[in-house]
Amino acid sequence: MESPAQVRGGTRWRRFAVVMVPSVAATAAIGVALAQGALAASFSVSGQSFKVKASELVGQNMVQYGGVAPGPEKNYPVVVSGFKSATITDMCQSVVTPNVPILGTVTLRLQAGFGDKKVVADNLYLDVASLNVDNAVFDHMEIGLPAKDLQLPGRRTDEKGVSPAAPYGFGQQAKTATLTGVRQTAWATTAGSFTLPNLSLRLSLGNDECFPDIP
């Protein structure tokens, strides 16, 4: 099984046609371990974005600030959203890889947290390229704080390969954030732990994203 640092960024597809069976087995094993809360979850900037959709995300001690996520060939401006803890309902995550030898376009899609059993994460950070929600409610919101003054979970400072916020960059925080109808495109996700009940993980040919591109 790959280490969490190697898991970051998803499956390496260039040799997919040669090693498809062991790759699928390893990915499935990682998914099972995550579902059992056995692994820290860490997905890095591979130069390939992914989509996340959820019916609802409820986060405690939310912080937001601008950052830069370095990729293999260029850097990506991101909005970093951090939560000390979060619960996610009806989560879907997908990444599409085009031009896989022999197979063409391939989608890796993960779903979890349906019904009463929600996805649970702690020390969750999302490097977001775009975010759309149907509704957002923030409790005890503070806007315009310098990033250095953000409270728990605060600025991310120990994540290899991800630049922390500038100390006096724009930041905001809230005691609680409730987002419904979430559709986001992200470059990276890190969390102290992820628990994913009712996990479903599959590979499919073609484009099977969690939601279509939003203009």
Report on this structure:
The chain has one domain. The protein is built from 2 helices and 11 strands, in the order ααβββββββββββ. Helix content is 11%, strand content 53%. The model is unreliable at 1-44 (pLDDT under 50). Strands 1, 2, 3, 4, 5, 6, 7, 8, 9, 10 and 11 form an 11-stranded antiparallel sheet that branches. The chain is mainly beta.
Largest sheet: 11 strands, antiparallel
Shape: globular
Rounded Rg: 17 Å
The number of distinct structural domains comes to 1
Please provide the ordered H/E string of secondary-structure elements.
HHEEEEEEEEEEE
How far is it from the N-terminal to the C-terminal residue, by CA? 38 Å
Q: How many E-type strands? A: 11
Task: Note the total helix count.
Answer: 2
Q: How large a portion of the residues is in β-strands, by DSSP E?
A: over 45%
Q: Would you tell me the overall average pLDDT? A: 78
State the gist of this model.
This protein is mostly beta strands and 215 residues long. 11% of the residues lie in helices and 53% in strands.
Q: How are the elements arranged and paired?
A:
Elements: H1 4-7, H2 16-35, E1 41-43, E2 50-70, E3 75-89, E4 91-100, E5 104-112, E6 119-132, E7 135-139, E8 142-146, E9 170-191, E10 193-195, E11 200-205
